[in-house]
Amino acid sequence: MELNLPESQSRSIRCIVKLGGAAITCKNELEKIHDENLEIVACQLRQAMTEGAAPSKVIGMDWSKRLGSSEISRDVDELGDQDSAEFSKFVVVHGAGSFGHFQASRSGVHKGGLEKPIVKAGFVATRISVTNLNLEIVRALAREGIPTIGMSPFSCGWLTSKRDVASADLSTVAKTIDSGFVPVLHGDAVLDNILGCTILSGDVIIRHLADHLKPEYVVFLTDVLGVYDRPPSEPDAVLLKEIAVGEDGSWEVVNPVLEHTDKRVQTSVAAHDTTGGMETKISEAAMIAKLGIDVYIVKAATTHSQRALNGELRDSVPQDWLGTIIRYSK
Q: Where ATP is bound, by residue (predicted)?
């Protein structure tokens, strides 16, 4: 696999954050953003990035008209007297949720076959949808004063081979970070050397970013408290507090001790989800943990997610924290 990075980098990445599609969109309503969750997530990200040292007034960076508004933000007039906020280095990746998945599954983009008119049309439709969502997330974070830059994997040269990442130009991502910006990538429709095209999930993107940027920790923000031993909607579903990953990449549940199972986790995938759902998330998180990087899977827009984003769980995990930690077991 070819990943292009500048030879020397001064970056020290603190955290890569995955905004789960189900957490920031209304997944059963076509192309509808969960505005309340996204607003809280943006606020929590700002708090985590500034480590509590944010200025009293947030100066927004979205100077475009918003839907239903006749004027642009006036924050631009106040920038002259504002001290620059110091942000630790974060990277954000988001899923598609109710954007993109329906278009991709309806046309079969994830299966490849660009020679088919329906697949080519679906490829275009999927990218229109996911890039629209990317813009709205970039704007939401920018309104919180976070200097975000939207970056699409397709446009940045990410290519796959039978759905595995074959090449990715990370030089633009690295330069963006070193210039003081926060890259915001997303799951995308990309070209595939064998299939013609496919869907590259945000979870896979995070694993490759973690492998090469080496963040201190990774946070997956979801619509449930963490990983359960079965779909959380089922009776008696148990929240798994800690999953240990071995040297060979295999993983097992260590907290709580599950006597009624063989330490395997049952997962479900929505019919329109072309990226593998929770099973893919656990698999990719395990590969990140194998690098020696702790992974926290936690419900978005909660006190638990704020603690995870702040990095408070790295030394010790409070008893009242609810979420799933996936870490390497030596």
A: 97, 223, 277, 281
CB 96 within 8 A of CB 26: no
Which residues define the annotated binding site for ATP? 97, 223, 277, 281
Domain count, the chain: 1
Ramachandran class of 316: left when φ > 0, alpha when ψ lies in -120 to 50, beta otherwise: beta
Binding residue numbers for substrate: 96, 101, 202
56 assigned to some structural domain: no
CATH code at position 214:
3.40.1160.10
Binding residues: 96-97, 101, 202, 223, 277, 281
Question: Does the residue 163 lie in any domain?
Answer: yes
Taking 70 as the threshold, does the pLDDT of residue 236 lie above it? yes
* Predicted pLDDT of residue 262: 46
Q: Does the residue 70 lie in any domain?
A: no
Triad 291, 326, 198: Cα angle to 5°: 70
- Write the single-letter amino acid at 1: M
pLDDT for 239 beyond 80:
yes
Asked whether the predicted pLDDT for residue 10 surpasses 50, the reply is no
Question: Does 37 fall in a domain?
Answer: yes
Over residues 147-176, the mean pLDDT reads: 95
